[in-house]
Design goal:
The complex is a heterotrimer of chains A (241), B (1041) and C (479). Chain A contains 13 helices and one strand; from the N terminus they run H-H-H-H-H-H-E-H-H-H-H-H-H-H. Chain A has helices at residues 8-36, 38-41, 55-61, 66-69, 84-91, 102-110, 130-134, 140-144, 161-169, 192-201, 215-225, 230-233, 236-239; one strand at 114-117. The model of chain A has no long low-confidence stretch (mean pLDDT 89). Among the domains of chain B are: 237-384, Dimethylsulfoxide Reductase, domain 2; 573-725, Barwin-like endoglucanases; 742-779 and 795-1039, Alpha-Beta Plaits. In chain B, 27% of the residues lie in helices and 19% in strands. Chain C has 479 residues and is an all-alpha fold. Chain C has 17 helices and no strands. Chain C has helices spanning 2-7, 22-34, 39-65, 80-91, 93-104, 114-134, 161-194, 198-207, 215-248, 260-286, 296-326, 330-341, 345-357, 365-369, 371-398, 413-436, 442-453. In chain C, helix 7 (161-194) packs antiparallel against helix 9 (215-248). The relative contact order of chain C is 0.19. The model of chain C is unreliable at 1-9 and 456-479 (pLDDT under 50). Classes of the chains: A mainly alpha (241), B alpha/beta (1041), C mainly alpha (479). Chains B and C meet through helix 4, helix 22, strand 35, helix 27 and helix 28 of B and helix 3, helix 7 and helix 12 of C. Strand 1 of chain A pairs antiparallel with strand 1 of chain B.
Chain lengths: 241, 1041, 479
């Protein structure tokens, strides 16, 4: 009877065994890498919009405050998109004939809503409240970081639960003085003087003998000052109802 | 094609979308739709993926590292053209308005989220509401979004236009002008809207020969006739229960059904709250055929046939020495005699602070007797006052409808206009036979929210606006006027309110706002200069000033008052066949049938019977057995198997050739020899939910005997009928099927009598007291501390609830409020029969004592938020966990649905989505959903979380303002709705909060405390105040086992 | 040879029937998959195949509609799903017991039934595993029960007994499969060598992993086999103990019982042996060759094990009654009364009769030799064990603490559909197994034969590696 298997089948068998194991590992690693990649999460991928609105232009170049358009961010769960009336406060004066702004003018003149596309999307079972964050020293930049550099608006963060929890578990790493929330160029002071100046400027009480040296120490001070109950922040009921 | 569609067949969904197309372009509507659908808590994952489940499964395996929130295509986000000045996106506005619940207004605040009303709260400034509501009021928001609402003008069932109607009616009215409108009849319900009444009067001025009739199947005829007998004029009695120490209610459900019930319940409860050191308590005597909400609350309950009430009251009148002369037949038995004696004794002992109340179903003579007694005892002016009737044109409804029938029979009616959803084809007395009368009229118009039984018999059907869509004005039972503000842009463009329609017929059409405001300008609400300010304030507050009817001074028209007592057949055996007495009553949930298509009300377990989606023939166990309906049970516990399984025998109630089929159901505490049947069921054209549900009691209701019909033969049928109950009514934890005393065997609830409480406020002597302990010795460190937050380290809130069953009437307003607030789905009769009802808050009702006349205990059971929650430990994915404020949080999207938590819950308060219950065929219903609460998909457990969304809202606001949440700032939906304020919620860490104070009460206890789950919801002992002369001694014995 | 047997202790209880030799053992057993299969196989496989197909349909229907298809409801959150899960897991117990515990107890008779029992175990656990997965409301997220690092930053909750279940059952399944496969390797090599078709040769060759019968293979194989046996020994106790904790951890009267772990394990062994008997008896008829190795003595012993474990289980029932009374706790007391006289009394008494009373006839040696009666008893025990789970799960849940939440449970047609389909799947798998794989452990049987009749630890004979042809060469079998 002829041999069923040849010698080289041993190699085949070994490759299959080793390859199978590798494939499992690779699938797990690759799968998780793919799902975390911008390709999947759309982080950094600008969304097409009816009007190519530039945050960079309006915020960085013109210096318009976030709250000029997103005026209800301090009062509501939603930051809100401005009505076209708000756009027209300026654009009835400048760029009045720009074809790019035609949809805005149409909306305003015909009283028809202007439909944009959402960039940042949270699942329906997550209850995020803008006002709760901006009033407690969590800056726009923490979630929408880099928006001042964006010509076309894209997501800055994947908004995974892990992302949220990261801050909810360690708010002191991200918190800043309330007054700096809308300042996209804010940097944690590095020197003692700067830190002191910052704290004095916003009237935040501190121990002069123990001035915070870094973000973590500043964060701890602010967390206490703003009465933030850190351990409560990772309660499920904070975001899910 | 649309012309061809038969409007009566109700392709509700299609019609809705057709309307939507018509609406396209109106920015409000687009805003509502587009702005809100993305934010709208859409169902969890499986909604989208039901058809792609394999794909999803594969995806979930492959992308194991991924969170559940996938990256879906991005939804739209809308820029409005104009910035609204009055609202902020995502923040709800509240508008004061009013709804008609039982013919009279109850003031509410409508919560409007982005242009869509989603919840009604009681209006604290309104005299009938005082901030609370009843179940029916809570559920009315669902009517607005009812997909079965009529949306089109129909002529002979064909869709047509208002223009066509206007032309047609103009023609028809034109022919009447010569005759002065002699052939015109207007039929409405009871009109409590001043502006509408004015429009109708104006119409009647144009057509002086025309007639306006009013008909409500549940009406105040007997009450008004009663006052006429006693005082010579029609008057509206208003009770001042706060001043009453002793209340004797005869066949009256004044705490639930009758106008003003919400206010009465509050006033009554205020006289009943027992606390350490405050042991004054009113006492309620109730004599009635079947338990009502009032009867269940009674300290002394007497089951008695309705027809014998007159006899009992006469006995009381004699005993208190009231100047009444009557001829009454029949004798009282020993129990009844004794009850009357004791009640009379108590009345006399509390002159000026006692009250006799007689129900709407009792004949006028009985009312008159009660007035005489109240007058004799000096109660008038103190516990009861009289005002003019709040109706714009008070009338006797039965007379009106009879007159209309005669007019039609005499061919005197050529134009019949039925306004505001009257439905005589369904609910008029059967002897008048309106089904055949209506088609006899050549020109009939039906105006209503549904294409109902009457609409299909009419030439024209006109769709009515919901009161939340238009302006209007309505009076409460005391006459107070509320301006109804629209809460939403009309959902369907071709609807009109009755006011609009009448204005149109008067040739002066206008917008409802203008019509209403003009009326009040003319009515001189305020001097012209101040009108605007008064009007604005009135609209804002929901109460127009000085519109309540003034109290009238009354005096008996003769002393002694001679009343002709009603003569009923008290000898029920006729020609060898035993006959029974049937008492009709409005249904506790669907009322007279007008709410039949309201699924929330259909699914709400009826306060007494815990039956839903049905009306049954309720009778005593004795009568049930006498009729041979009782089946010998298996040898196991000797219980009737149908009591466990839940099916009932069908019987036919037959009298004088009229007959109805109905399922018979024995209910403890029912009087013998009589049967209670609720109206409002058996509708054929109520809509998808309400048609074909239950049994039509109008089939045996006649104009002569609208409430109490004697001589009814009961014929058992072989058929059996499945019934949906949320609670088995026989509690089987006993070997004796006739004794319903499960509280003796199990530590259900701590009970005591007032006298016991006075001596021993902790009720230490109760055998089960130990089982209710809150804390058990443990060697583990205390996880929860309730210390004052004045200690700077303790900043936490500790949410807790105390429920006081002593004042709970079981009215179920909290249940429906919870349903409305928390997007709780309706599951339908079949699912309820399988034990899958979804209501988060249930009201347990326990009987104790003899089945003939047991004591009833009501215990609202929400999730207890146990500190040692048994559910949390067993969840494999940590979908239910504690938060730092002591809430037993439930993360719907984390739930995989093992149901172990529910199994391990000793209170069984968790609810599981066995199917995709939240699926809604009609998109219009999506507008109803509360955006603050996740809509749960299939396979997910859900439960009460103390309205965590309201806590969150308050917390965020407090955080923003850098302060603590104030006591009373968070009010869960159940507490909000509770008419008796039996539910108190708050922060246990705040020593001054109401809830902390109540937790310190000596009679505070935990249900199933012996399990050491440490529930945060605790209860105060149910304290009763029976008269020791009557059942006190016996009851004392019974409660102490 | 005759003399040798008579001299041994074995002679009264022969583990082999007929004239045996190494050659005959190999031939008889390995020939079964290679011969034409009896008509009974086709019929049974066909039935099983229908069942398995219907299982796929039942699961698809379930996924489309949701668990609302079942009779479960508010108080009774678990019904057929968990009853069947526990029942199948219990059945899957005999495999490990025979493989591991009996090995450790040096019960030589295990050799002829262990392969069979292990196969049964694997298929039973497969059936069992379906239920916890599909009983969840959202099976597509059931992977959350596994501690996979994820983007939710959430772990499963390790305190939950359901989580322990995931570990216990998956470990048990993995080890059982490995153990079974390990034992199969030399036999598959035998099959490879005897196979007639090239396909069989290749497949058997692949799955025998290059087995060459070399001494070092045997040595390593023995070591690995022993290690796995050691590994699976605690599993016998752990799996069903942990399944029992699904109930014992809770606070529901009737579940919160401390004796559950041993009581469940005994019950599982009881039902496992019943199922082995249920299978072995017809298989001996369908494949008469098997009866040479699964003798009446084997059957007798299995019946005795059933009798013994049956008594442990019955003791458990008595304990539960005692606890009810002794606890002085009204809920526990009510539980007992409700079992006796409540609406589901019939299920309780069926359980007592099936598991407590009927197995007592096994005291009689005559009965233990009567295959038909034994078969019927084993079926009855299987039914009884199913009722045990029904009693524990449904009867405890349907009436617990608050009378207001009491309810009734009625299984629906979908419950039955899924349950019967898993039985179909099980039957199909057993017959697939019979079709392709040597049903008895050839290598182990030969070793046993060697030890018994020739081994140094046997009874007489000289230790030798060479088989002594004491019997005529077998007629059948491949060469």
């Amino acid at each position: 009877m002829a041999q069923v298997f040849r010698r080289h089948h041993n190699t085949v068998a070994r490759v299959i065994v080793a390859g199978g194991l590798l494939a499992i590992v690779g699938l797990a690693v690759g799968g998780s890498a793919i799902t975390r990649s911008p390709w999947w999460t759309k982080v950094g991928e600008p969304q097409d919009q009816p009007v190519p609105f530039s945050h960079k232009h309006h915020y960085e170049e013109l210096g318009i405050d976030c709250r000029y358009c997103h005026w209800q961010v301090t009062q509501s769960a939603h930051a809100g998109v401005p009505s076209t009336e708000v756009c027209m406060t300026c654009h009835s004066q400048i760029w009045t004939n720009s074809p790019l702004l035609q949809p805005v003018r149409d909306s305003y003149n015909n009283e028809k809503p202007l439909v944009w596309y959402k960039v940042n999307n949270l699942p329906e079972f997550v209850y995020f409240d803008h006002s709760a964050h901006v009033n407690k020293g969590i800056s726009c930049a923490s979630c929408h970081g880099g928006i001042e550099k964006m010509h076309l608006t894209a997501k800055s963060q994947p908004f995974s639960m892990q992302f949220c929890l990261n801050c909810h578990r360690n708010p002191e790493q991200y918190i800043r003085p309330k007054e700096e929330v809308f300042n996209m160029y804010y940097k944690t002071p590095r020197s003692e003087e700067e830190m002191k100046a910052l704290l004095d400027k916003h009237g935040i009480p501190y121990d002069p003998n123990n001035i915070p040296k870094n973000q973590l120490e500043l964060g701890k001070l602010l967390v206490k000052h703003y009465n933030i109950h850190k351990e409560q922040l990772s309660d499920c009921s904070i975001c899910h109802r | 094609m649309e012309e061809k569609r038969n409007g009566t067949q109700h392709g509700a969904g299609e019609q809705f979308w057709r309307s939507l197309n018509e609406l396209e372009g109106t920015p409000e509507f687009e805003e509502i739709l587009k702005q809100e659908f993305p934010r709208q808590a859409a169902p969890l994952g499986d909604f989208v993926s039901r058809r792609q489940f394999l794909k999803l499964m594969g995806a979930s395996m492959a992308l194991a590292g991924l969170s559940a929130c996938g990256y879906k295509p991005q939804g739209p986000i809308i820029s409005r053209p104009k910035t609204p000045t009055d609202r902020i996106v995502g923040v709800s506005n509240y508008y004061a308005t009013a709804v008609l619940t039982n013919g009279y207004a109850i003031g509410v605040l409508g919560r409007v989220y982005e242009g869509r009303p989603i919840k009604l709260e009681g209006n604290p400034d309104h005299p009938t509401s005082l901030g609370a509501t009843d179940a029916i009021t809570q559920a009315q928001i669902l009517n607005l979004y009812d997909p079965d609402r009529s949306q089109n003008v129909l002529r002979f069932g064909q869709i047509t236009t208002w223009q066509a109607f206007d032309a047609d009616i103009k023609n028809a009215l034109g022919q009447q002008t010569a005759k002065g409108g002699a052939g015109i009849r207007i039929l409405t319900g009871s009109v409590v809207s001043p502006s509408l009444a004015a429009q109708i009067q104006k119409f009647l001025q144009t057509y002086p020969q025309a007639k306006w009739y009013q008909y409500e199947p549940v009406n105040r005829d007997n009450v008004y006739e009663g006052t006429r007998l006693a005082f010579g004029e029609w008057l509206n009695p208003i009770y001042r229960l706060r001043n009453a120490k002793v209340v004797v209610a005869l066949d009256s459900d004044f705490l639930y059904t009758e106008p003003g019930a919400v206010r009465y319940a509050r006033e009554f409860a205020d006289g009943r709250r027992v606390r350490a050191g405050k042991t004054e308590m009113n006492r309620l005597y109730v004599a009635e055929p079947m338990f009502t909400v009032t009867g269940m609350t009674a300290d002394e309950h007497l089951p008695i046939r309705s027809s014998k009430i007159a006899r009992v009251l006469y006995e009381i009148a004699k005993l208190v020495g009231a100047p009444v002369q009557a001829t009454v037949e029949g004798d009282l038995n020993e129990n009844e005699q004794k009850w009357a004696q004791v009640a009379a004794g108590d009345l006399v002992a509390h002159k000026g602070e006692s009250l006799v109340i007689v129900g709407e179903a009792q004949p006028p003579a009985v009312h008159a007797m009660a007035h005489a007694i109240n007058a004799h005892l000096g109660n008038i002016g103190r516990t009861v006052v009289f005002t003019a009737p709040p109706e714009e044109k008070p009338t006797l409804h039965m007379q009106d409808i009879k007159q209309l029938a005669e007019d039609i029979k005499a061919n005197a009616v050529e134009v019949l206009i039925m306004l505001g959803g009257v439905n005589p084809a369904y609910n008029a007395p059967i002897d008048l036979n309106f089904k055949e009368l209506i088609p006899k009229v050549p020109f009939t118009v039906h105006h209503g929210m549904y294409v109902d039984e009457t609409a299909v018999l009419c030439v024209w059907h006109l769709p009515e606006s919901h009161p939340f869509e238009v302006w209007g004005d309505v009076r409460a039972f005391d006459g107070t006027v509320t301006i109804q503000q629209p809460l939403i842009f009309p959902l369907y463009p071709s609807t009109r309110s009755a006011l609009e329609l009448m204005a149109q017929l008067n040739g002066a059409p206008g917008e409802t706002f203008k019509l209403v405001q003009d009326y009040w300008k003319q009515a001189q609400l305020a001097p012209a200069a101040q009108f605007d300010a008064v009007w604005r304030k009135g609209v804002h507050d929901g109460v127009l000033p000085r519109t309540a009817k003034p109290v009238k001074q009354v005096a008996l028209k003769q002393t002694p008052l001679v009343v002709q007592s009603p003569i009923y057949d008290l000898a029920p055996v006729q020609a060898g066949i035993k006959t029974y007495e049937v008492r009709f009553a409005p249904d506790p949930t669907v009322y007279d049938g007008r709410f039949a298509n309201n699924a929330w009300l259909q699914e709400l377990p009826k306060p007494v019977t815990r039956v839903c989606w049905d009306n049954l023939a309720y009778m005593s166990l004795n009568t049930y057995k006498e009729l041979g309906l009782h089946r010998k049970g298996t040898w196991a516990f000797n219980e009737d198997a149908s009591f466990v399984r839940g099916d009932a025998p069908i019987v036919t109630l037959s009298v004088n050739g009229q007959a109805m089929r109905v399922a018979a159901y024995p209910i403890p505490g029912h009087a013998d020899d009589c049967i209670t049947v609720h109206l409002g069921y058996g509708r054929t054209r109520a809509g998808e939910k309400g048609s074909g549900v239950g049994f039509d009691a109008y089939l045996i209701r006649t104009s002569d005997a609208p409430w109490i019909r004697t001589g009814v033969e009961v014929i058992p049928q072989a058929e059996r009928y499945p019934i949906a109950r949320t609670e088995e009514h026989h509690l089987i934890d006993t070997r004796k099927p006739d004794e319903l005393d499960s509280t003796d065997h199990r530590p259900i609830i701590l009970t005591g009598l007032l006298d016991e409480f006075k001596q021993d406020p902790e009720l230490k002597n109760k055998s089960h007291r130990k089982g209710y302990e809150l804390k058990h010795p443990t060697m583990y460190p205390e996880r929860w501390t309730y210390e004052s937050y004045e200690n700077p380290d303790n900043y936490r809130y500790a949410w807790a609830m105390v429920i006081d069953p002593t004042v709970c009437t079981g009215c179920s307003a909290c249940v429906t409020a919870c349903q409305a607030e928390n997007n709780i789905p309706v599951v339908g009769k079949d699912q309820v029969m399988r034990g899958r009802e979804m209501l988060w808050l249930r009201i347990d009702r326990y009987f104790k004592g003899k089945v003939e006349n047991p004591k009833v205990y009501q215990v609202p059971i929400p999730c207890m938020q146990c500190e040692n929650a048994p559910c949390e430990l067993v969840c494999p994915v940590a979908a239910t966990v504690h938060d730092h404020e002591g809430l037993n949080a439930m993360v719907y999207n984390r739930c995989v649905g093992t149901r172990y938590c529910s199994n391990n819950c000793p209170y069984k308060v968790r609810r599981f989505n066995f199917y995709r219950y939240t699926y809604m065929k009609s998109p219009v219903l999506h507008l109803l959903q509360n955006p603050d609460v996740t809509v749960r998909g299939r396979g997910v457990m859900e439960k009460c979380t103390y309205c965590v969304q309201r806590i969150s809202k308050a917390r965020i606001l407090a955080k923003r303002e850098n302060r603590r949440i104030r006591d009373g700032e968070v009010v869960p939906a159940c507490q909000q709705a509770c008419p008796t304020q039996a539910i108190v919620f708050g922060d246990m860490n705040d020593p001054n909060s109401r809830v902390s104070q109540l937790k310190k009460e000596p009679h505070n206890f935990a249900i199933l405390g012996e399990l050491n789950a440490r529930p945060r919801t605790t209860y105060l002992a149910k304290i009763d105040n029976p008269n020791p002369e009557l059942s006190g001694a016996e009851a004392s014995h019974a409660t102490d086992h | 040879m005759q003399q040798t047997i008579k001299q041994s202790e074995i002679r009264d209880f022969p583990l082999f029937e007929g004239q045996q030799s190494y050659e005959r053992i190999t031939g008889q057993i390995t020939s079964i998959p290679m011969e034409r299969h009896p008509v009974a196989w086709t019929i049974m496989f066909g039935l099983g195949f229908i069942g398995a197909t219907s299982l796929v349909m039942a699961l698809a229907w379930l996924l489309i509609n949701g668990v609302g298809l079942w009779g479960i409801n508010q108080p009774v959150g678990w019904g057929f799903d968990i009853i069947n899960f526990v029942w199948w897991i219990g059945i899957g117990h005999a495999g490990t017991l025979i493989s591991a515990i009996l090995l450790l107890l040096r019960q030589a008779w295990r050799m002829s039934i262990n392969r069979f029992a292990e196969a049964m175990t694997i298929f039973a656990v497969m059936c069992a595993g379906l239920f916890p997965l599909f009983h969840t409301g959202r099976p597509w997220v059931a992977y959350w029960l596994f501690p996979i690092p994820n983007w939710l930053a959430m772990w499963p909750q390790f305190r939950s007994p359901l989580e322990w279940d995931v570990w216990a059952v998956s470990t048990y399944f993995t080890v059982s499969v490995l153990f079974w496969y390990m034992g199969l390797i030399p036999d598959l090599a035998k099959m490879r060598d005897r196979a007639k078709s090239q396909l069989a040769r290749v497949l058997n060759g692949v799955f025998s992993l290059g087995w060459r019968n070399s001494a070092i293979h045997w040595m390593r194989w023995e070591q690995a086999y022993l290690l796995l046996a050691g590994l699976s020994t605690p599993l016998v106790l752990s799996v069903h103990s942990i399944v029992s904790l699904d109930f014992a951890i809770s606070i529901i009267p009737g579940w919160h019982v401390t004796i559950f772990p041993p009581y469940f394990v005994a019950g599982a062994i009881f039902s496992g042996f019943a199922m082995v008997l249920t299978l072995v008896i017809p298989f001996r008829i369908i494949y008469p060759k098997l009866s040479e190795y699964i003798t009446m003595n084997h059957i007798d012993w299995m019946a005795k094990v059933m009798l013994a474990t049956g008594w442990i289980v019955f003791y458990g029932y008595l304990c539960e009654m005692f606890f009810g009374w002794y606890s002085a706790n009204q809920f526990e007391q009510f539980l007992v009364v409700n079992r006796f006289f409540g609406p589901y009394w019939a299920a309780y008494w069926a359980l007592i009769i099936c598991n407590g009373i009927i197995p007592q006839v096994l005291w009689s040696p005559k009965i233990r030799q009567n295959l038909l009666v034994l078969f019927i008893i084993s079926i009855i025990v299987n039914i009884g064990m199913w009722f045990e789970r029904f009693v524990i799960i449904v009867m405890s849940l349907h009436r617990d603490f608050q009378t207001s939440s009491w309810g009734m449970y009625t299984p629906t047609i979908n419950d039955w559909w899924l349950f019967l389909s898993t039985i179909g799947f099980f039957v199909m798998m057993m017959f697939v197994f019979a079709r392709f794989i040597p049903m008895l452990a050839v290598a182990e049987l030969k070793e046993l034969w060697y030890k018994l009749y020739h081994g140094h630890d046997g009874h007489g004979g000289t230790p030798t590696r060479e088989p002594k042809p004491t019997a005529p060469a077998p007629q059948g079998g491949g060469q």
